[in-house]
Input
Amino acid sequence: MGGIESSIDQKPTASASRSVTRHTRPTRGGSLLIGRLTEHGRANYQFRSGENPSYYVKLLTSRGAKTLWGKDLERALTSGETRPKVGDLIGARRVAREAVTVVARRRVAGGRIVTEEAHHAHRTRWVVEKVKFFAERARLARRLRDEQADVRETVREHPELKSSFLSVRAAQEFAARRIADPKDRERFISLMREAMAASIHKGEPLPEVRMRDPSRAEEVTKIPRTIRPDDPTR
Amino acid sequence: MNATWPLPQSDAILADPETSEWLKSALQSAAERNPIDALNDALVLAAMLEERLRRELDLR
Output
């Protein structure tokens, strides 16, 4: 199986440039690539000397050898939950694309900037874990999707789902107060539940439970929210 | 950090106590077959096993 190799890549942006803006948007969820981890490490993109530094992950899949490229792969492999080792059966999935605006500046002797050019690029965020991690996430997602499940019992068995169930309850309370039509209310709650379940299924980080300090509640509400360019207008 | 897994020779796999009996048996029977047919079948088998894994563990 070792003769033919295909490559899935994300071309790195110029290292000499400076990033000025970033917006992370979840993708619709790339498909899960499954294979045996055979090699990984830092290298110039596509192993070409003239290219920028990147990171590669080689997998032996049922359809042959595949090489993934992307700077984020190093973080995904070394800071994930299961931290796979060479020889493990793993899954790799693109979970988000981070839009990056890079400004390339040309300077003359003395440091004066003569040209400034903005480039728009994307940096892919990966999840790379042992296969059992994705199986467990699929199980958790099923529990969250199950509207008939006993929430208390489920949270006792899976405390990591507590924040997700709290979010579902918050959505239910919001819908009860703000959405008059029962059909729209149900639709809103079910969309919210499905979005959270899909995110868990994909392997994205589970939301953490954050306790609100009542003494700071007023202070928090006074902080003006920064309006982002991609916010809805209404 | 770079890490690699060199593809082992079949003799080494057969001698390794960690290797499953299933893989040893498959390697031994494959060695008696035409190598083209053996690899062709192995690729189909690998794809089928992946499909089963995805179905049973709900991986997509």
Summary: Chain A has two domains: 5-130, 146-209. The CA atoms of residues 67 and 209 of chain A lie 37 Å apart.
